Amino acid sequence: MKSVCFYFQVHQPYRVKKYRVFDIGTDPEYFNDRSESDLNNRKVLEKVASKSYIPATRLLLQLLQKHPELKVSFSFSGVALEQLERYAPEAIELFKKVIDTGRVEVLGETYYHSLAFFYSPTEFEQQVTKHREIIRRLFGVRPRVFRNTELSYRNDLAGWADANGYAGILAEGWDPILGWRSPNYVYKPVGSQNTRLLLKNYRLSDDLAFRFSSRDWSEWPLTAEKYGAWLGAAEGDTVNLFMDYETFGEHQWEDTGIFAFLEQLPQELGKNNGIDFKTPSEVIASYDVRDEVDMPHTVTWADTDRDLTAWVGNPMQKAAIEAIYALEQDVILANDGRLIEDWRKLQTSDHFYYMCTKWFGDGDVHAYFSPYESPYDAYMTYMNALSDLRLRLSKRSG
Amino acid sequence: MKTRILMFGWEFPPFNSGGLGVACQGLTRSLAERGFEVLFVMPKKFELSSPYARMIFAEDQNVTVRAIDSMLSPYLTTKSYLRERESGGFYGSDLFQEVERYRAIASSIAREESFDVIYAHDWLAFGAGIEAKKATGKPLIVHVHATEFDRSGGADGVNSHVYTIERAGMEAADVVIAVSELTKNIIVEKYGIPASKVRVVYNGIDESTAPSGLPSKRMRSLKESGYKIVLFLGRITLQKGPDHFLRAAQRVLQQNPKVMFVVSGSGDMDAQMFDLAAELGISNNVTFTGFLTGADRHDMYVTADLFVMPSVSEPFGITPLESMRLGTPVIISKQSGVAEVVRHALKVDFWDIDDMADKILSVVGMPALSETMSMHAREEADKLTWADAAYKVDTILHELV
Fold first, then answer.
1. Tens digit of pLDDT for each residue in A327-349?
2. What phi, psi does B361 have (nearest 5°)?
3. Over 60: is that where the pLDDT of B246 sits?
4. Residue numbers of the domain that contains A361
5. How many angstroms separate the CA of residue B348 from the nearest CA in chain A?
6. Sheet with A196-200: strands ordered across
7. In Å, how far are A75, A195, B315 from A144, measured between CA atoms?
8. What value of ipTM does the predicted structure carry?
9. Could you say which DSSP state residue A50 is in?
10. Tally of structural domains, chain A
11. Do A25 and A143 fall into the same domain?
12. Which residues of chain B are within 8 Å of residue A390 when distances are taken between CB atoms?
């Protein structure tokens, strides 16, 4: 028997509006852009909900009804769920319905989709707890498998998950780490007792997430039949297909045929003998551990480096993330709900990603996904908002 | 057989007063390196006997220079030409007579020399290019580094005589080379030249344009006492936006008084800028250095914490590249050609004083911003070479010859 294990990530940050030096001390609202630009969180949420979350989940619901063997998993950031509740409640209702089928697992993460694990263990715990609460409130379930922001992972995160009773944790199946091992098995992280490690099969995942509509790709057009055959031919116990949920309808537009592809996939997969769908918890329960995996250094699912350099690679990114965590003690002590919330919204990893200069000069505009004109604009905006937050803090404490 | 280019151009650094001479030199060198023979004709205000021309291209076997006596300068307006003529006592009674003289000399040179293609840089040389084409029937390329619409900065209005000469050159040309898409648009829209005839070739930057030296004492002591230095370097004229620079300076100083604004250059708005600084109440934080060349110019770039090019209209704009090459971050006007090729710069609308001030404050106040920009600026400027520009010109030449 072999399984296909889908995990879809749903996340939307609170983008910081254009915030100038002159605004410091005059405007405590950082996330309320009302322009036509992609800094307008409401506009972005409405767009992505109508192009992706709503049609994809509606389709998923039909497929779950039609194919009783279909199973998938989701991870939702708290900030995405908050915004969807406010701007696209229909998407929340659809998510509730698919989760109510009992065949859709919800994973645990940080509420603010942050990199807190690497900067503040206490803050990290707080955000995981807050995330658990919103998942219980909206969906009535408790996550048993954890995935950290951007699939960032290292041994001590597994240690934390182990100590906190998680059955499993997700990470990138990166060849330099795995060596001869295949990502298509269940592994045990170094040092953990009960927690198991599931690794992303990035080739087959990226065939959908990145290459699906690329006409330069030799396999274009990718049909459900072809892809089903590839999955059927894959060696191992489980093929872990991890990707952003926006793959369906937003990254790959409807006219690329992505929805039709998704619709046909269960029946194409059914043509293979001995293959089924499983959620991450079921995969862990069903297959034996193949080996132990040691990842002392942080690995992520990002770009060709698979590390954190897309978020904290340049001096601006380092300065920004150090500046936000340097405020922790004062913000917590100030005990002001608004202040704490704004401080946490500024921890979302996207803010640091927008400051990434790795590919900015390459002339490949598409390599830089950002609502800002440049990484420099992103940094200035962020640091100015942070200065205002610091000012609010000093007024409170002083 | 080597392709031979008869080129009508301008004086080279250090005797020129702006980017055009730098561009002529950079392109000529790189074309020579690609194996073209260039006969470079330039009007000179100085003694013909000087070994300067031969010195400049001493190592370039493929370049021959013919200098002709003239007091033409590409940046002369009719008014400033008259002023210069009165003070210098040169011959010629009128700028346009000088252009006519250049044209006539060009014609005789064209008949004496053998070449395959004619190449003229900017309007003062266009007449010469047209004449050479008439005399020999060889194909003509005109290279537009600036148009009358840029030079006039939108205020004095466009000189119709200059416009006519520019348009005649573009019409007579087989190919028009523009230094940016911005300039191409002006050529198509304002001069009625078919877009298919206009090609964009961006300028490059060479090591030779950045000689080394030591920062001045005054600048060093300012920095030691904690001042950040923000530099404007260019002609002090409407087109370059020095007034916007000073108005942004005033906004900056309200927030951060430890900034010194340096204005390097000279031009027809010198006096006006002294007055404006006084009027804005910021004279103590503005330093006027006059026109800088060679090592002094290099030092100014290096000393500065930030370079600002607030041009109202800038066909290309090579100074930000000079600054970036030396690792000094830049803020550039969106109304510039260089903004089309440079990514690691902050971009502003020249009229948006608040945005400019905001960005100046950010760069001088956020070390990580300036460090990241500096690092990438060097890398980026190093990639924008005259060799690339010459490669593009090469492909255009091959279509014609």
1. 999 999 999 999 999 999 999 99
2. -60, -40
3. yes
4. 309-397
5. 11
6. A145-146, A168-172, A196-200, A186-189, A289-293
7. 12, 10, 61
8. 0.92
9. I
10. 2
11. yes
12. none
